Amino acid sequence: MILKPEAGRIVVLYEKSRLDAMKMYMGDPFDPLCFYFTGQTSDPVFFNYTENAEGPPETALFLSTRSGNPDPCCLTQKPRVSMGDHQASADPALAAAMTGSIKQKRPLFVIGLFPEPDDGIFFSKEGQVLGQTFHATFSTRKTRWKYLISGKPDPVQVVDRDGKIQFEKTEPPDLPISSPVQAFISDQSIPLTQSCPTNFALKDEMSGALILKRLPPASPDILFKSKGPGAAGYISEIFVNI
Question: What angle do CA 22, 26, 32 make, to 5 degrees?
Answer without folding.
Answer: 125
